[in-house]
Design goal:
By secondary structure, the protein is of the alpha+beta class. It folds into 2 domains: 2-33; 58-182, Beta Complex (Metal Binding Protein, Guanine Nucleotide Exchange Factor, Chain A). It has helices at residues 2-23, 30-38, 50-56, 59-65; strands at residues 86-89, 95-98, 102-103, 111-112, 121-128, 132-137, 143-148, 158-161, 166-169. It starts with a helix and ends in a 19-residue tail after the last strand. Bound molecules: zinc ion. The site of zinc ion (ZN) has 8 residues, from loops.
Length: 188
């Protein structure tokens, strides 16, 4: 009888453990997801589910960055700050644009004539006359905005971004060596 009780105990522990391990991936809370994000080196891609993003983003950020929405333009959208810092992805912290490449496009959305480096952003292969080419973060695939061919010199490009998708950092990033896949690799 003692042996049988031990077996039953082992079985119930086993069932409890397997239930625990099954539930684990979907049981992360916002703090745990942030902690997980912080452990991923900046030169590696971030592949979170929308459910995970939703736990660490504001509703507006989630609408713009994970649903490819567009925020309303604002009077401060084109304000120039004349600082030397960097705009990073609000979702994953990937450096995207240097402040000195920001210009006043008059649209009400933050506009830049060049990303910090080509590999920092992903540009969709499809073009729309109205919406331009979709631009997303190359590290976490979050939607950022669109790029148009009516920007100022020296590039003639206008990266029209949603302000909620960008976070300003005073410090410039050091030398960046990133190895993100280019173009449509890994994209649906
Ligand atoms: Zn990102």
């Amino acid at each position: 009888m003692k042996g049988m009780a031990q077996v039953l105990l082992d079985v119930s522990i086993c069932v409890a453990l397997s239930a625990c391990s099954r539930a684990h991936p979907s049981n992360l809370d916002g703090a745990q997801i942030r902690a997980k994000l912080n452990t991923i080196p900046l030169d590696q891609q971030v592949d979170f589910t929308n459910r995970e993003w939703q736990l660490i983003m504001s509703p507006q950020q989630f609408y713009v960055m994970r649903r490819a929405g567009t925020e309303r333009p604002s009077l401060s959208g084109n304000a120039l700050d004349h600082r030397n810092g960097t705009y990073v992805c609000s979702a994953c912290g990937n450096p995207l644009y240097r402040a000195e490449t920001k210009f006043n496009s008059g649209t009400g959305w933050p506009s830049f004539w060049q990303p910090i480096r080509k590999e920092a952003v992903h540009e969709s292969s499809t073009f729309s006359a109205i919406f331009g080419v979709e631009v997303s973060c190359a590290r976490c695939s979050s939607h950022l905005g669109h790029v148009f061919n009516d920007g100022p010199p020296p590039t003639g490009l206008r990266y029209c971004m949603n302000a909620v998708a960008l976070t300003y950092r005073e410090a410039s990033p050091g030398p960046v060596t990133l190895a993100f896949p280019r173009a449509d690799q890994g994209r649906p």
